[in-house]
Amino acid sequence: MKEMRKTEETGEAEELEESDESEDNPGKCSKCHQNNIERSWCHPCNAKRFQNEFGKWTSEDREIDELIQQIQLNANKYQEIIEWIPFERLENVTYLAKGGFGIVHKANWLDGFIYSHKKKMIKNQLKFRGKNAIAIYGITKDPTENEYMMVMDYAKYGSLRNLLNNKFESLTWRKKYNILSEIVIGLTNIHEMGLMHKDFHSGNIVNQSLTLSYITDFGLCKPVTKNDPENIYGVIPYMTPETLSRGEHTKASDIYSFGMVTLEVLTSYPPYYNIPHDVNLVIKIRKGLKPEIKCEIPQFLKEIMEKCWNFEPLNRPTAKELKSQLGKYNYSCNSEIKKQVNKQINVANKSNKNFIQYDPNEMHPEAIYTSRHLPFVKSKNFETHNTKQWDFVIPDNIIEEVGENEIQEN
């Protein structure tokens, strides 16, 4: 059998070679009769087909052309393909939100899925295809802005922060648990690749359904061996004491940030929503400040969250350990665990009868939830064993102005 799909340029039918197969047997290619390397995928035939199309399109940037071509030639399954998508094949391009390092638009892709995300760090995002990150379909270029954009799957509910603002009442404890489990799977995949996200917060997580969450925005993502203590970026409430003290970022820093995301998912309240995100908050976090917990939380989830907040990085759980800890409560066959969890949920529900969920209008005007450069945290004569040699440089414009239409929750 052959799968039919449309090309972006002409809308004509294009065939990708596949064959009859089962889950356990990927079958043989009906054209070259070689074994498929993946279900429904003949690598030699499809690589040749892609190669024959290389002369029919260009991004007008050699590096991007080579990137797309290399990915197509190496693809072992449909999910690994990315394409060059002419901008005229996107219609109704509409602004959605602006984050610290990119702008998100929604659009109808005439030949397929919808979602367009403007981003400069395309290679970083592509590393996570198929690893619990939002699906990427290709690259395009806005001729008006002369900017390259990634075309990604549409996230119906937008950012996790947006979902919590609008749908928190629909989230049962079970659904909140599922959201956290999905996020931990994605974070585990990042860390197992030897990378750290470095900008982990609820604005950089998107939801395609109430519980299907994907990590995105890998603009600051770096190998664990790379730190730049002279240039500190991020969203202050999600940043660790060691990052704000020594410019040090490790996998454990992502775990601390996950703990803050956990607080949001379980309570609806973003950390430190009611105070300025300035040098005073930085100093307090360096000294071990923890955010207020605004409602009763089942004890098993509260313990996991607070372990992530541990002041000492080595005492925080790893992403793999978090995945295991959360997995223990997933439809557990252990009757004692079920009994304990149900008891904790009942206690929480009883205590939260008069709970008032977060109102975005209550956010302090100087609370900033977009990633930014933090020039007022700067090292002088840095030595890892002596944090007292760190000074704060406080400029006059300590809080960067935010445009009237800028969405701070992203």
List the helices and strands and how they pair.
Elements: E1 2-6, E2 13-17, H1 43-53, H2 62-74, E3 83-84, E4 90-98, E5 102-109, E6 116-119, H3 122-126, E7 136-142, E8 147-152, H4 160-167, H5 173-192, E9 195-196, E10 205-207, E11 213-215, E12 222-223, E13 233-234, H6 241-246, H7 251-267, H8 279-286, H9 299-308, H10 319-327, H11 335-351, E14 372-373, E15 377-379, E16 390-392
Parallel strand pairs: 3-7
Antiparallel strand pairs: 1-2, 4-5, 5-6, 6-8, 7-8, 9-12, 10-11, 13-14, 15-16
Helix pairs in contact: 1-2, 5-7, 5-10, 7-9
* Widest β-sheet, arrangement of strands: 3-7-8-6-5-4
| Individual helix count | 11
Tally the structural domains.
Answer: 2
Helix content: 25-40%
Largest sheet report: 6 strands, mixed
User: Helix and strand succession?
Assistant: EEHHEEEEHEEHHEEEEEHHHHHHEEE
Low-confidence stretches: 1-23, 113-121, 379-410
As a whole number of angstroms, the C-alpha radius of gyration is 23 Å
Number of strands: 16
Question: What is the typical, i.e. mean, pLDDT?
Answer: 79
Q: Could you tell me how far the N terminus lies from the C terminus, measured between alpha carbons in angstroms?
A: 44 Å
Oligomer classification: single chain
| CATH architecture tag of the largest domain | Orthogonal Bundle
Strand content: 15-25%
CATH topology of the largest domain: Transferase(Phosphotransferase), domain 1
Any idea of the CATH class of the largest domain? Mainly Alpha
Class by helix and strand content? alpha+beta
What shape does the CA trace take? globular
